[in-house]
Amino acid sequence: MILAAGRGSRLRPLTDRTPKPLVEIAGHPLIAYGLGLLRSEGVRDVVVNLHHLGERVVAALGDGARFGVRIHYSLESTLLDTGGGIRHAAPLLDEIGRATGDTGGPIVILNSDVVCEIPVRDVVAFHRARRALVTLVLRDDPRAAEYGVFGIDRDGRIRRFLGAGDPDPALRELMFASLQVIEPSVIERMPEGRPFGTMRDLYPALFAAGEPFYGYVYPGRWFTADTAADVERAGDALRRDGLPAYMRDLAEPPG
Questions:
Q1: pTM of the full predicted structure?
Q2: Which helix (H) or strand (E) covers residue 115, if one does?
Q3: Contacts of the segment 200-205: beta carbons below 8 A, 24+ positions apart
Q4: Among 140, 187, 198, 224, which residue is least crowded by beta carbons within 10 Å?
Q5: Helices of type H across the chain
């Protein structure tokens, strides 16, 4: 699932007329990077939730064929935040699981406003090997304190969650890198029909209850698009250093 429903308030006034997933970086809309990454990692069915200017996203992406995936849209008449959006999309996720014969498998969730090269298959394997409830991809970043810090032990188990938990100075402190893997049972614990955030409202309670949260450390390229300065910085870096390989793949018609 790609989370793409937000208003992109920090990018206004650009996002008053362009939905954030369609803001371009190095000649490509932001969400194309997420679709390309997932396709390159073997994902073929992607749920995209929409609210703000959602019809423009549908018009731009269509059924996903030119990106090599099948897109299933989850439309939100009221903005439901991250958790509410995932819960609202549960019937689509279940339908895909039944159609592909993968019911009960973990769900990969990616924010639409990042460019990265996270090895999704490896993250899922890490998640399964540790029998995690939730695995967050984490990274070193000088702005970690600004975004929120997670502390992990040597096995990758999260012991501090956004400042709550074990104060052990031996923990490695990192920030969330916008991709997570969750078990379907997480969705079963989500309230229906109302907005709520996973990181703010749901996960802290699950973490406090001792549920297994793990962090997969990703050291590679990662750009966010929270602000106009972020967009400019990411575009400059990608033009200088080259696009991710999966974007070059998307330049060819899908087979």
A1: 0.92
A2: strand 114-116
A3: 201/83, 202/83, 203/134, 203/161, 204/161, 204/162, 204/164
A4: 140
A5: 14-17, 30-40, 54-61, 81-88, 90-100, 120-129, 144-147, 184-188, 203-208, 228-241, 245-250
Chain-centre distance of CA 59, in angstroms?
A: 22
Q: What sign does the CA torsion over 160, 165, 167, 168 have? A: negative
Closest by CA to 108, choosing from 98, 122, 95, is 122
165-201 per-position pLDDT tens digit: 877 889 999 999 999 999 999 999 999 989 999 999 9
Question: Residues of 36-52 as b/e, b for ≥16 C-beta within 10 angstroms?
Answer: bbbbbbebebbbbbbbb
Helix (H) or strand (E) holding 50: strand 45-50
Query: Six-digit token pair at 191?
Result: 């309230």
Whose tokens are 């279940």? That residue is 94
Phi-psi region of 165 (alpha: psi -120 to 50; beta: other; left: phi over 0): left
Check whether the bond before 169 is cis (ω within 30° of 0). Answer: no
Residue 114: how many other CB atoms lie within 10 Å: 21
Task: Using alpha carbons, select from 27, 132, 5, 124 the residue that is nearest to residue 73.
Answer: 5
pLDDT tens digits for 79-126? Answer: 899 999 999 999 999 999 888 877 788 999 999 999 999 999 999 999
Query: Position 55: which residue type?
Result: E
169 is written with which tokens?
Answer: 């100075």
Which domains, and CATH codes, for the chain? 2-250 (3.90.550.10)
